[in-house]
Amino acid sequence: MSFLPDARAARFARRKFINRAAIAASLAAMLFGVFWLAWILWETLSIGLASMSAAMFTENMPPPNEPVGTGGLANAMMGSLLMVALATFVGAPVGILSGVYLAEYDPRGRLSVTVRFVNDLLLSAPSIIVGLFVYALLVVRFREFSGWAGALALALIVIPIVVRTTENMLSLVPVELREAAYALGTPKWKVIARITLRSARAGVLTGVLLAVARIAGETAPLLFTALNNQFWKASLSGPLANLPVTILQFAMSPYENWRQLAWGGVFLITLAVLGLNVLARLLSRKK
Fold first, then answer.
1. Which CATH class is domain 74-286?
2. What is the pLDDT of residues 82-141, one digit of tens each?
3. What residue ranges do the domains of the chain occupy?
4. CB–CB of 223/149 below 8 Å?
């Protein structure tokens, strides 16, 4: 008769040991990841902050082998800002409207299932594939790298992120709100514009900010589309300077002044992405 309590105690002790081992392994994996993340952030902050200067925001990229501290990244910042802004202006409305259709008009239809499948493929696809697609679509056809092609490639990365976020946020809006509006005779488009989208606006805006944070540091698509430019240019026609490609080229160069500017650019992108992620967290936390 004493065998059963002993067996139960043994099973309980074994389960307790396995539980502690799993928690210890999870904690060790977390600490391993946090260690490398903290190291990367420390190197970025310590070296990048030391590379910051007023000239970085006011001067263009310097020629190679210039004295350390000369030149800046003003033209690269301008090019990145133009392409990211245009990509967001194009991609965010398309993504929001697509998410509205999937969540409100035809959530279980055949077209919606197909769109979700394609959207999931775009979400998981490497960004370099998007860059190659736009390269074949625009650069090869017009025989010219351009900021327009770079903005299109970034917009194609923005769209699936915004589609997924918008659909998920709209699906969280209680059905009772829609039913109450329909009972009062409100048209469907007005229910979506005035009730569901307004209720989910914090989540939708969070998705847009996360998409902007994603494309701000993308390098591979711009290598095949916008390329780079050493001179100041406020037009999207022709090769356009941008921070990610400039960082790649300067970091691989043998010139000390270029490597220092690369660290400064890394610090700026890290700061921008961190700020966008913090803002997105605050907006989602508010709701």
1. mainly alpha
2. 999 999 999 999 999 999 999 999 888 889 999 999 999 999 889 999 999 999 999 999
3. 3-50, 74-286
4. no
